[in-house]
Amino acid sequence: MDLLEQLGDTFLNWEEMAKVIPSLLMVGLPNTLILAVASGILGSLLGLALALMGISRNPAARWAARIYTDLFRGLPAILVILVIGIGLSPIARELTGSRNPYPLGILALTLIAGAYIGEIFRSGIQSVEKGQLEASRALGFSYGNSMRLVVVPQGIRRVLPALVNQFISLLKDSSLVFMLGLASSDREIFRIGNDAMANTGNLSPLVAAGLLYLILTVPLTHFVNFIDNRLRTGRPEKKEPDELAAPIGKGAQA
Amino acid sequence: MTEFTSGTLTGKNLHLSFGHNHVLRGIDLHVEKGTTASVIGPSGSGKSTLLRVMNRLIEPDQGDILLDGRSVLKDNPDELRQRIGMVFQQFNLFPHKTVLDNVSLALRKLRKLPNDQARAEALEQLDLVGLKHKADARPANLSGGQQQRVAIARALAMKPEVMFFDEATSALDPELVKGVLALMADLAKGGMTMVVVTHEMGFSRNVSDTVTFMDAGVVVESGPPEKIFSAPETDRLKGFLSDVL
């Protein structure tokens, strides 16, 4: 029984949790969201550029995208964050006059996310039937307009579930910026839990941080399943049952 | 059906190779303004490729393409394709857009028409193919025959001078073929210049003004339908007709 109590106290000490919850919510949550959302948006833009380069007819563009993707997908996130965050900090300080590690943290997360998102977009765009591009070109649209108006929107729609997964991954990886050393008001969820654990010697603050991550990520994973399902089965609310019945063709003025 | 401002299309000595595969070996095809030319032949004979070369979806290695007597090889290919409508075997409607948007997209983005005018013209085209009431539906909720008629409306909306049909009824269920063929026959009667790659020998025989029989990248025989179907000269055409009729 002692052992159970000890475990309970180590992981589920409500008092320690209660103490850390305000700063988890007021400081950690917004900071984690800033890191993840900013690098998610920038990473998507970078990923789209990489995807278009990856399917371009220009071999130099294809190679550049390939090498970039191999590099940033092949390195551990923490290594990239440290190298960018520490290596570029003198330049960043000169440019922005601030020691805030967030811009570099966001940059590092963006570079990593871009590599993954680029592959997601590329697979989505390439999964769009060749006939779509052909039909658009046949109407007189240029290659660029065809991609922008017809192919890319369809490709992106198909990979929305994978994109949300990538965002979940980004939410979690954003915790790694703690390595860059954060001022107290810049701390994200993990760092706040970690600091409280170090101060108290009790793991419960980290468990609370973990729960907060789960509150963010679990609904997202279910959201993924929801849109995945909807994309696969179509939009039932828009279907007109009588329209789908077999004799529909008879309406085709024979 | 309304009259069209159609043009005369000529392909001269068109050649195309994919690597060592010589797909088109010097094709000549002349389609007089307002007439329908059907192109028949076995699979892999280069019929569909010929269409794609004549609207420069694929650039020919050699030869010339004339629209109303003027070479269009030096023109911007996108502008050329605005003058030539194309209908595909698999319809290729844009599934993420409504039927109306499929038809009005090029009007808005290429013709730069204001939205309400593009909408009005698109609805007019849809009315022409009998599908105005489906304007707000998604292509996926239409039958194959309806989808193909929307695809025809989409091509017609750009007021093309020539229409290409690439096996437009091959992917349709048998009971849906008739409606699409009837629409194509209406266009032909209305004076549209058409090049129709088809396996529908009935259509080729009854609707087209000239028939071109292709095999292995060359034109083996061409002429008016009576001659092609009733008095074929070459063994290859005789063999093909006995296989398909």
Q: What is the N-to-C succession of helices and strands of chain B?
A: EEEHEEHEHHHEHEHEEHH
Query: Which bin fits the share of residues in helices of chain A?
Result: over 70%
Most strands sheet of chain A: none
By secondary-structure content and strand pairing, the structural class of chain A works out as: mainly alpha
Distance N to C terminus of chain B: 31 Å
Determine the mean pLDDT of chain A.
88
Question: What topology does this entry show?
Answer:
The complex is a heterodimer of chains A (254) and B (245).
Chain A: H1 2-11, H2 14-54, H3 59-74, H4 77-87, H5 89-96, H6 102-127, H7 130-139, H8 143-158, H9 160-173, H10 189-200, H11 204-233, H12 241-244
Helix pairs in contact in A: 2-3, 2-6, 2-9, 2-10, 2-11, 3-6, 4-6, 6-8, 6-9, 7-8, 9-11, 10-11
Chain B: E1 9-18, E2 21-31, E3 36-40, H1 47-54, E4 62-67, E5 70-71, H2 77-83, E6 84-87, H3 99-109, H4 115-128, H5 144-157, E7 162-166, H6 174-189, E8 193-197, H7 201-207, E9 210-215, E10 218-223, H8 225-230, H9 235-244
Parallel strand pairs in B: 3-8, 3-9, 6-7, 7-8
Antiparallel strand pairs in B: 1-2, 1-4, 4-5, 9-10
Q: How would you describe this protein?
A:
- The complex is a heterodimer of chains A (254) and B (245).
- By secondary structure, chain A is mainly α.
- Chain A is 78% helix and 0% strand.
- Chain A is built from twelve helices and no strands.
- Chain A has helices spanning 2-11, 14-54, 59-74, 77-87, 89-96, 102-127, 130-139, 143-158, 160-173, 189-200, 204-233, 241-244.
- Chain A is globular, with a radius of gyration of 24 Å.
- The N and C termini of chain A lie far apart (82 Å).
- Residues 236-254 of chain A have low confidence and may be disordered.
- Chain B is an alpha/beta fold.
- Chain B has helices at 47-54, 77-83, 99-109, 115-128, 144-157, 174-189, 201-207, 225-230, 235-244, and strands spanning 9-18, 21-31, 36-40, 62-67, 70-71, 84-87, 162-166, 193-197, 210-215, 218-223.
- In chain B, β9 and β10 form a beta hairpin.
- In chain B, α3 packs across α4 (115-128), α3 (99-109) runs parallel beside α5 and α5 packs parallel to α6.
- Chain B is globular, with a radius of gyration of 18 Å.
- The mean pLDDT of chain B is 95.
- The interface between A and B is large, with 31 and 43 residues.
